[in-house]
Amino acid sequence: MDAPIYGAEGQIMAALDVSSARSDQTEGFNRLIAATVAQTARQIEADNFRAAFPKARIVFADHDDSEVAMLLAVDHDDIVIGATRGARKAFGLGATGPITAVPASDIFGCEDGPRGFERAERAAVIRALARAGGNVSAAARALGIGRATLYRRMKRLGLGENIA
Known about the structure:
- The protein has six helices and six strands.
- By secondary structure, it is an alpha+beta fold.
- It has two domains: 2-108, no CATH class; 116-156, Arc Repressor Mutant, subunit A (Orthogonal Bundle), CATH 1.10.10.
């Protein structure tokens, strides 16, 4: 029984193989061994993928009921910079090689709401408020703007004071 192990760029990098010559081995035992081999190969694949993208956030993509490792590496700008073989197939990112950088929101279908700079500004304001524990003055200082300016931007962006 064997299972391929795919590398961070979708290529086969190894295979896990288990052999037995026992005469008393049952079909049920063979299924158990095969399942264990496949699960171990997927774990090695996932660990290798995480190691290949040490500075990225690793996101588990729950696309279907498949047992393959569907992981995405997302950088600090929310751009997908890597994908396991299962995620590549599920999201049409190409079978092997480096993937073309794509916004995570495009893959996860989160395009509702503001776009472009407004969306980026909204995210920056929400992050600053969260880091400041909801303190508008501290958030304004962190953003390098005045408190009144932050209040105006929050109003324009439809953000209440109870963000954090």
